[in-house]
Amino acid sequence: MTAPQRQPGRLGRALIRMLMKQAGIAAAEDVAPGFRLLTLESPEFKGIAWTPGQKVQIAMGSAFVARTFTPIEWDAAAGRTRILGYTHGAEPGSDWIRQAAPGNGCHVFGPRASLDAAGLAGTPVLFGDETSIGLAYALAATEAGRALQCVLEVNGLADTLSALSQIRLGNTELFERKNGDVHLDDIERRLPPLAASGAAFILTGKASSIQRVKRCLNALNVPSARILSKAYWTLGKTGLD
C-alpha cells in the first residue's frame, strides 16, 4: 500500500508559489509494464523556450522533495509537455508516476539546464537505461539526433521493447541486467568500433555503470570533448539530480 502524499507546510507552500508552475495531468497512459506516458498542461508552459535534454523537477508534496524528469517534447504554443516515467522500486518518484491520473495537479520547476548535447561532434551514441529513454526520444527528434544510436541496460527486455515500440523509438540495442553487472562486459565489447568511428558518447542512467563505461572509453583514447555524462541515479540514494 502506498502512503498518501505529504502536504506542504506554510514555508513549502510559499516556495512552491514563488518557484514552481501549477500544472495539471491531462493524460496518463500505461505504455508497458513499469512505463507510463504522462501529459502535463499549464498556461505557464506557454511561450517557454525548451531545448531537448533540459529537465523539469516535480514536487513530491513538498518544495524540498522533488524528482527530476526529462521531457520527451515541449509544445510551447499549447502549454503542454510529456514525460515517460519509469517505476523502479518504492520511492516518491515511482509512487507519483504510478498514481498520476488525469485531473490531478502538480507543481513543476523548470525547464532548466541538465544535459546539453548540442556541442558534441560526431554521431551521437547514448548509453543509459530505462530512465534515459525520455532523453533519447527528445534527442532523436532533433536534426542532429536523427542518427542517434542507443545502448541501454535494462531490467526486462520485453517490457522495454514494448515501451520503445509504443513511442516509436528505434535504433536501440538492449542488454538485460545480470548479477555482478556481467552484462556490461558485452556493452564494453560494443564500444571499440563506435569509438573508432568518431562517435560522440552521451552517458546517462546509473552512476556506477557510467563510471565503468567512461573508464573503457578513456582506455580507448576517446577525447573528453566527445564524452558527456549525467548520472540519474545510484543505489542507496534518492533525488540524485
TrEMBL record:
SUPFAM superfamilies: Riboflavin synthase domain-like (SSF63380)
Coiled coil: none
Protein name listed in UniProt: FAD-binding FR-type domain-containing protein
Signal peptide range: none
Superkingdom field: Bacteria
InterPro entries: FAD-bd_FR_type, FNR_nucleotide-bd, Riboflavin_synthase-like_b-brl, SIP_fam
PROSITE patterns on file: FAD_FR (PS51384)
Start and end residues of each FAD-binding FR-type domain: 18-118
PANTHER family: FERRIC REDUCTASE, NADPH-DEPENDENT, NADPH-DEPENDENT FERRIC-CHELATE REDUCTASE
Gene Ontology MF terms: oxidoreductase activity
